Q: What sequence folds into this?
């Protein structure tokens, strides 16, 4: 789940210019005059004095600043990320994709299960050991198998999750601020150059919507020495007076390839702050206030149909069924395909436009494919090899109707298939399903929603599923030859499961057919764009602004009270959960330690929840220890709102919970309502709207996604 917001609180965010050097000691200096190596006549004296007095830089020790010392690329991205208010743990995050997944004490199934995590839980990735991820969940650290974890995209092979700069580098890449020195390398330990700094600062300003005031700039005599990729960034910083060059013989030289010193970095960040004009940001006042009880009919306008169509990407989705990636290992040694309502298969390859190119056919309704690590071998039902290829192999079932193909004797899927040599696993095969978007929706809807749910709720769900696959993380796995992962992705794609007869899919198929080709859109930049239709199981009584959960304001993802969920509160199993803990017990002591209070019990009445006034969802938690120390945590810190629930022993996630204190028993009770991230559509809220309030799917979509429209895709 995406995105982080921008905070302009510059003075608190440059504390790490000396993070990586092992010799760095805490500085006690409060002025440049405290440093023996910063003379009052030095050109950088004012800059050093400024950053030190504001607490922005540390010295190497109490008397040494090392103005001529250099910075690495990893250090600079760390500084830039903290300048932007980035939580690095949020960008080292992973989402649990299985149900009741064990968190183990070591990287293997023979290790003790510390606890289990529900699907959708967010963890912080600390490192990788083979196919196992070391993660932190609340106060617990353990290991999760890569089959059950979907990490944020991590491109650079030389940026280990355990490094201090990992979260900041991933943030920089995702925001388009940094692209690396090659497709797979970031070079975090290389010294950062002056032209690289300009490129990074200009990219950050553009991504954050920061305008720079113009100054009395100078021209650089060595302009031709600036790399082509850095020209625009240097020009932006030159015009803003952020970089000024050094004078020699009446001319100014930028020296683009020179490593930037700590003194230069101090001066550059000081000038950047002075030149930066913060973008306008949304305020809580823009969030709709709760309506009086009983007013449920006019909370929003239905999503209305527009006559014009909206552009969508190719309608064929490539779903990884049995695949390997760096983190996910599911490829197999042999694949068997059986067309259950057909006569055979065509074989060949897929073109770059996803069209099928036939090389021949065979009448066998059951085929198998094996690999010797170099070639793929297609065999008929008798085991005879009929075709081989050193590349990928495409198979399309031949059927007089809508073909369904059973994979390895289990689940059936619509569409065609591509088989490839598995990533990083010689002799194993990856299987990819090429399926039409409408059949993809039919393969998700029965598992994300109830097959016996009200028709209008299912139709709203069909639109949400269709939009989501076309927008959220589409193409994340393109390097591996597919678009999304099936059974472990953000949407559960299981085709025609073997546990059900065809009648089980009648209602969900009908909902998909009745909304065929329909997409939800919003107006942006003079045109209509596809919404990213986030949804959760239950919002517990109010949705929440995307900006408050992930950062970044989204016009159609605005928090509001949800009056519909109260009608299903009594029988939705995951709607609420409670846990009571002794105030002085070990569990709350661990919580205090995780939050940074040290080894102490929580004080009496020492847990206070602050909520957003418009929704009542949790904004922050203030913890007070018996030692008198107090800390406030929220979603922007490593010990966040979901970690708090985990430490209370409550499974599931939500931004909606309360804490009460019983003085007589000396205990705290935490009660969670809802299950999920609270952003966008509530599945159980949609059920209630359709079942008990007679709302149409247009009403449902209009309520949960503000100001949206429906359009047919083209």
A:
């Amino acid at each position: 789940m995406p995105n982080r917001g921008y905070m302009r609180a510059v003075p608190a965010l440059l504390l790490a210019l000396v993070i990586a050097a092992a010799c760095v000691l805490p500085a006690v200096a409060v002025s440049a005059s405290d440093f023996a190596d910063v003379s009052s006549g030095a050109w950088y004296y004012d800059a050093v004095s400024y950053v030190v007095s504001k607490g922005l830089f540390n010295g190497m020790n109490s008397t040494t600043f090392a103005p001529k010392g250099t910075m690495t690329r990893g250090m600079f991205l760390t500084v830039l990320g903290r300048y932007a208010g980035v939580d690095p743990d949020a960008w080292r995050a992973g989402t649990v994709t299985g149900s009741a997944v064990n968190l183990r004490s070591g990287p293997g199934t023979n290790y003790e299960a510390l606890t289990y995590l529900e699907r959708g839980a967010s963890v912080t990735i600390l490192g990788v050991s083979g196919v196992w991820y070391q993660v932190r969940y609340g106060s617990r650290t353990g290991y999760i198998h890569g089959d059950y974890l979907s990490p944020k995209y991590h491109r650079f092979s030389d940026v280990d999750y355990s490094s201090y700069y990992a979260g900041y580098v991933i943030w920089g890449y995702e925001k388009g601020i940094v692209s690396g020195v090659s497709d797979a390398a970031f070079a975090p330990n290389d010294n950062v150059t002056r032209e690289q700094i300009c490129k990074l600062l200009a990219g950050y300003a553009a991504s954050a919507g920061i305008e720079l005031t113009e100054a009395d700039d100078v021209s650089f005599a060595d302009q031709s020495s600036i790399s082509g990729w850095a020209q625009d960034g240097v020009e932006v910083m030159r015009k803003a007076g952020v970089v000024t060059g050094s004078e020699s013989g009446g001319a100014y030289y930028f020296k683009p390839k020179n490593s930037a010193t700590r003194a230069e970095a101090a001066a550059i960040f000081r000038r950047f702050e002075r030149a930066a004009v913060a973008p306008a940001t949304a305020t809580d006042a823009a969030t709709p206030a709760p309506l009086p009880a009983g007013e449920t009919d006019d909370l929003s306008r239905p999503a209305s149909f527009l006559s014009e169509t909206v552009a969508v990407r190719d309608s064929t989705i490539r779903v990884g069924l049995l695949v390997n990636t760096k983190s996910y290992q599911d490829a197999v040694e042999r694949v068997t395909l059986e067309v259950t309502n057909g006569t055979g298969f065509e074989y060949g390859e897929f073109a770059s436009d996803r069209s099928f190119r036939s090389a021949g056919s065979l009448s066998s309704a059951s085929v198998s494919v094996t690999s010797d690590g170099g070639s793929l071998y297609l065999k008929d039902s008798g085991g005879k090899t009929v075709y081989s290829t050193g590349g990928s192999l495409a198979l399309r079932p031949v059927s007089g109707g809508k073909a369904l193909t059973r994979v390895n004797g289990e689940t059936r899927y619509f569409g065609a298939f591509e088989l490839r040599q598995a990533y990083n696993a010689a002799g194993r095969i990856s299987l990819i399903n090429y399926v039409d978007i409408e059949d993809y929706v039919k393969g998700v809807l029965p598992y994300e929603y109830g097959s016996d749910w009200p028709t209008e709720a299912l139709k709203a769900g069909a639109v949400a599923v269709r939009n989501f696959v076309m927008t959220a993380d589409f193409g994340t796995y393109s390097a591996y030859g597919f678009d999304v992962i099936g059974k472990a992705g953000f949407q559960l794609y299981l085709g025609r499961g073997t546990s059900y007869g065809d009648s089980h899919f009648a209602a969900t198929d009908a909902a998909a057919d009745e909304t065929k080709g329909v997409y939800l859109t919003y107006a942006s930049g003079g045109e209509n764009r596809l919404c990213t239709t986030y949804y959760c199981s239950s919002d517990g009584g109010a949705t929440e602004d995307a900006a408050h959960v992930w950062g970044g304001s989204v016009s159609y993802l605005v928090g509001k009270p949800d009056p519909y969920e109260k009608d299903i509160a009594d029988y939705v199993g995951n709607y609420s959960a409670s846990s009571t803990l002794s105030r002085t017990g070990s569990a709350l002591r661990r919580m205090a330690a995780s939050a940074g209070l040290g080894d102490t019990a929580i004080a009496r009445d020492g847990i206070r929840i602050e909520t957003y006034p418009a929704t009542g969802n949790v904004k922050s938690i203030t913890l007070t220890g018996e030692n008198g120390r107090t800390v406030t945590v929220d979603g922007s810190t490593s010990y966040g709102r979901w970690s708090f629930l985990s430490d209370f022993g409550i499974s599931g996630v939500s931004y909606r919970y309360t804490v009460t204190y019983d003085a007589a028993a000396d205990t705290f009770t935490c009660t969670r309502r809802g299950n999920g991230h609270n952003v966008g559509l509530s599945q159980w809220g949609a059920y209630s709207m359709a079942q008990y309030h007679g709302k149409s799917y247009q009403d449902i979509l209009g309520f949960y996604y503000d100001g949206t429209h429906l359009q047919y895709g083209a």
Summary: Confidence is low (pLDDT under 50) at residues 1-29, 279-298. The first helix runs from residue 45 to 53. The CA atoms of residues 35 and 63 lie 4 Å apart.
